[in-house]
User: Fold these one by one.
Assistant:
Number 1:
Amino acid sequence: MVAVRTGQRQGPTAGEVAAERASGGEVRWPSGFLAAGVSAGLKKNGKLDLALLASRYPARAAGVFTRNRVQAAPVVVTREHLQGGVLRGLVCNSGRANACVGERGIADARAMAEEAAAVLSRFLGEQVPPCQVAVASTGVIGVPLPMERVREGIRRAGADLSPEGFEAAARAIMTTDTRPKVAGVTVALPAGQVNVAGMAKGSGMIHPDMATMLAFILTDARVEGADLTGILRRAVDDTFNMLTVDGDTSTNDMVVLMANGAAGIDPGEDALERAVTAVCLDLARQIARDGEGASRYLEVEVRGAATREDARRAARTVASSSLVKTAVAGADPNWGRILAALGYSGASFDPGRVTVSLGPVEVARGGVEVPFDEERAREALRAAEVRIVVDLGAGPHAARAFGCDLTEEYVRINASYRS
Amino acid sequence: MVAVRTGQRQGPTAGEVAAERASGGEVRWPSGFLAAGVSAGLKKNGKLDLALLASRYPARAAGVFTRNRVQAAPVVVTREHLQGGVLRGLVCNSGRANACVGERGIADARAMAEEAAAVLSRFLGEQVPPCQVAVASTGVIGVPLPMERVREGIRRAGADLSPEGFEAAARAIMTTDTRPKVAGVTVALPAGQVNVAGMAKGSGMIHPDMATMLAFILTDARVEGADLTGILRRAVDDTFNMLTVDGDTSTNDMVVLMANGAAGIDPGEDALERAVTAVCLDLARQIARDGEGASRYLEVEVRGAATREDARRAARTVASSSLVKTAVAGADPNWGRILAALGYSGASFDPGRVTVSLGPVEVARGGVEVPFDEERAREALRAAEVRIVVDLGAGPHAARAFGCDLTEEYVRINASYRS
């Protein structure tokens, strides 16, 4: 939990620092929100698989959705519900994606919203329309939801709603994740504090475009007049979208932001954006760290790009190159693979002007190897958090991508390729 | 060895059949070509690492090269040499890519051509200019070639040149390949026979864009007037390029075609293209079968696409999806992953019109699951050669992509995702 200074805009740095420091501490969930996570019998062994989030007050809301041509039913329904710009709650199941099941999928997603709206109406003591409930699903594609279990689960979640339910909710949205992912930032203002916190699931860093990524960000900030959609879109662009390859997404990806104003304080659009970005960045990094089969977190920073898009593309391409990832797993400073990945990234640059560093060790300059201490370079790749920095020497733009290494059989072949 | 009928153009089918049948038999190398493979000490343990190909007669030649922005020195030099349209030989080393080593790389590639030209001049008893020698390299990027060893290797290869040297040459160009890859087709014509044969290396199906792919195709056909470059480009497009993701290529990829006319027979442009395509297809499939860590060959056919590019894109995307590949490895008929991959392929289609078959088992129609025998579907995925057929229901275009499954740790997590 950390203070984000407000005032003049300082770029992502402030938010970033906040996020780094925030991820260590305990998350303070925003006022006026409640959560529950229950087992509805969608996963085996009584694992939590249904989450319900509720706001005591109407929350202004925005969403960012998958760009996959095949869109899961909950994506269609939630997009529709967000047109009103107000949410009172969110229901999410794991175990089944509710995608590619035909007309029935839409009906089931609507039924989830209706059941949750009924539960929330009883709980909050006022009428909540189904269109004020967001719906999300994650799990196997092509298998319909067992709706009786889902309905029963929603009812039990409604009975469990509490300000202490966020951890259970974060567990209930997991699929192959090995741990729940939550993050929070507190913004200190003269008038008091505003909290922004969120939960996410996703663990498929090897093919992030396919492993559903869900994130729900909550804040008690008052946000009258703020462009919530713009804030969320920009925050997602520099964080969750830098986990993905070329904007490829699963059928179910969704990030939802809800601001219920319970803190009674409007931090201003810039401070809010920094805080939301900080929470998204923290969650994105947690997803990268939890990459399927990963042993190391990998962050790739590209500087000196001619355009912002070039920087983003180059960073993502290097971070998602299997050969770079296996070199990291094998702690092999095979920097040529980085150059080759840059070469097919689509970014514009002169190979003869590229500089590459592995952690603190510069290994190439002007596109060719510089003398470097092999053992130090290996050490930089053996760290739990590996950082590759590239300067393209082509302009002023920079971007970072978040990933992880690639282990095992494929590694056995590729990691020791040089020796 | 198989006859390709000539006459009216029959599309890729004839060539395809020829290739399937050809891959079983022994390859008949075209007349007037010689080859050698030696160990120049670039790889460890005295493995073969330098190949030399020679033609007794000036051969008309064409090449197709990597589209990576970072191009290895031999790519630059060979592209230049092919401007003359005539080759007498080709020299290729493995172990070092001769890429990203600065100005020196170009000088080294030129020196390889010069040394080979000198050797060929002595061997053939006539002056061979260096610009009639193609140069190729594959191996580690960023490490210069040990030129004394390379020169010495070229001289020894020159002394070894023989019509029986192709197998050794095919071995000498291997890197992580587990076996050499050669293929041949004989075209029977009233006037006699024409042979087309080739060798290839490449084994990185998990990230084909990064694992160097080299192929050298030779024919004794007389090809006066034929558009060799067009023939090669079209052949590569439907074969080697369907191994790759979105045209991404390594720094060193190269396919070279040489036609020396030694058979004294001109088969006509169509027959030649069919035969070249058949050889390329056979080699491409061998590369897919030898995919790093692969246990199964995977062929994805997409029909009913609105455009040719849509068909190609969709087929390549499905064949390269890690989640599809792990489902194949785990023999899990999780067809939703196929639909999701189609969805982010960029192809235009209505998800509600898609049909998916795993081998002979139709699993989805109209975008939703049809009742199918789970055990039969699993069996289709357990075959050594797995075939996925998709109909997009959007038009008349079709394409095939060639790949393999994805095994091990990543599989442990993903293959059993449904259970």
Note: The two ends of chain B are 46 Å apart (CA to CA).
Number 2:
Amino acid sequence: MPSSAILCPPGFLDRLEAFSQLGSTGDGGVDRVEASMANGEARRALARRMDELGYQVRIDPVGNMFGLMPLAEQFAGQELPWVFAGSHIDSQPKGGRLDGAYGVIAAVEAGAALKERLRGRPVAANLAVVAWTGEEGARFQPSVLGSSVHAGLLPAETALARKDGNGVSLAQALDAIGFRGTDHAPKPAAYVELHVECADALEKSGRRLGVFDRWWGAHKIELMFIGATAHTGPTPMAERKDALLAAAEVITGLRRLADAAPPGTLHTSVGRLEVLPNSPNVVPDRAKLFMEIRSVDPDVMADAHARLMGLIPHAAAIARVAHRIVREEIRPPGAFAPSLRSLAREQAAALDVEPLGLDTIAAHDAVPMAIVCPAVVLAVPSRDGLCHSPREWTEPADLELGAAWLGAVLERLVTEGPQHG
Amino acid sequence: MPSSAILCPPGFLDRLEAFSQLGSTGDGGVDRVEASMANGEARRALARRMDELGYQVRIDPVGNMFGLMPLAEQFAGQELPWVFAGSHIDSQPKGGRLDGAYGVIAAVEAGAALKERLRGRPVAANLAVVAWTGEEGARFQPSVLGSSVHAGLLPAETALARKDGNGVSLAQALDAIGFRGTDHAPKPAAYVELHVECADALEKSGRRLGVFDRWWGAHKIELMFIGATAHTGPTPMAERKDALLAAAEVITGLRRLADAAPPGTLHTSVGRLEVLPNSPNVVPDRAKLFMEIRSVDPDVMADAHARLMGLIPHAAAIARVAHRIVREEIRPPGAFAPSLRSLAREQAAALDVEPLGLDTIAAHDAVPMAIVCPAVVLAVPSRDGLCHSPREWTEPADLELGAAWLGAVLERLVTEGPQHG
């Protein structure tokens, strides 16, 4: 047990601010979409910093970046397990500076500070920090791509073959920035992720720290409507096969499903819509929707999905078009490891803070990790609950508190062993 | 009056077929979007053919291509007026091979054949053939761009400054293909356009030829919804400002206006929708709709517009977004010159065909021309009424009949003078 409160690593806020300049959009936000030039720049800066702090930098075949900090060779005659801490540095096209990057920079700095604190003390685990590839799913779907590969939930070949909207594969995009690696990395025995909340429960409650107890499930569906191009002028209304009309019927219908449910139980969305040929005076023959159904309750998800599946043929009939489900991805709801959640609460108490128990609705890399090892997400407030926006904001003192908390949790895991989690 | 029926110019179908290979999409259609590389290739082929047939090729500042065929110096001591025939060779991105190109190739070939027939006979007008820039409005709005400039309805500078979806201006695009000219071209004293019907009235009636008596009006509106980006997962439904949702409400609502009107009296559409940032897990903060309201009745247009203006704030309120009309363009309905319509009917009778009187709902270059001189559109059938589709089709015998008819109409106008029209 740590005898005194652990502090935020010195210079942490300055380092975070400097990192926010990489891919800056000039309005407080960043555009570091996975394997973009700006993302490559941020990756190189991260690798330099890891190296400077004594981490062994490893890049795996899907571009996950690991910083290994071996603390001891063996413990009680055994190979030491690895405690992981990290998050991601890719962003949305109009993303914020904290979503992901906060957790990575905090892990890197807190890990190095921990190594200093530990000098001479026995340890039960080694430490690895990590920045996962393609968490956002903005360019390559599915989201939480790199962590899913490392968790063994998705073959690396499948991830590398995923293509962006321009037909560029992840493999090609990583090659273009020089981050398709060949290194092997150890598997985690525990995983801790520090993240901004991306919701407003902490802000509303006035609490400064939160522990994610459960994650919402997400059912993501790519749907294509197939009509026929025709002139928007003369073509009789009754003869049109309008793929965009069908898409609009589904967008409004899917929204109504969420509006009809009790608040906070079901979230639905269409974030991306591809229309072809997308010419002002041509009836569109193709419309591809990227839809989401999210809930913490599997029955609510299944019910919403069944209703959506009823909406789609109805919309297709109205618009006289065909339809096809192009891709589906289901992430069931679940709970993070109780032991790690307790440990996080204990270490918050050591900082004189009582954390709020939260659900995470957004995906985090901790979700695929939680399938293979104890995992937890530590959260700090998001002003107005905003993420995926240049207006993301967390009070600097809370950013520092979160980094200190992460350091304290990692110290317990490294000194007492991840089986504690 | 011609003593015997005029024939289709020899080799016409082969020339049309060869022209269809320029910008071919491999499925029977073409992609010759204005000032694209394929459009430039088609323009060069057209200029070569005009030159070969003895036309003087002129390119004006907005890229309109004229082929001047002076038939005599003067008539009765006066400068001779110019009879124009033409259409356009730009296409939709997934366009058909006949829409536009048919009328241009027919004018060029029929004009040259007419010159041969006229040798030694007195004429009352000179002949010009023309391929207008940017009729389709697929890349640069408004549509019928080049003919509107030549008719004096739109300043050339305004047209040249119009930008495509990538921010490229018409001036830049024409420079890139070498078709921003400096030539002056005469003004028309009469304008005849041969075109496929782009509707199915001829096919349904079993007639082979049609005369466009009236044109429908069109009210085109570009509407922007402005919301706020946010994560599609955690953001509470009630707090989202979803620009795409507002767009979907308008798309379905605008369609319902047309569905509620008697068939064939009101056409509405949204052909293009731009969504930003268009990432699967980000609530869209921008959605720009390209909407159309069309009718032959000004009151129906005005009523539909008023209802649409009522829909928009309602949709904005549902989605918690702002809205702004970005651009509006109104083309009132109207009628083509009665004298030219009669002349066209007489010449059809000389070919033993009774043409059907039609409305044109699609814009044609003849509409801006009709504001400044007598104008008419001669039509041949479109199978299934399809235009703006690779499936455009007209029976070869009907294509030949139309070209012969155009030649006969031009002969009357050139020998008797455009005041006949």
Note: Residues 153 and 368 of chain A are 7 Å apart (CA to CA).
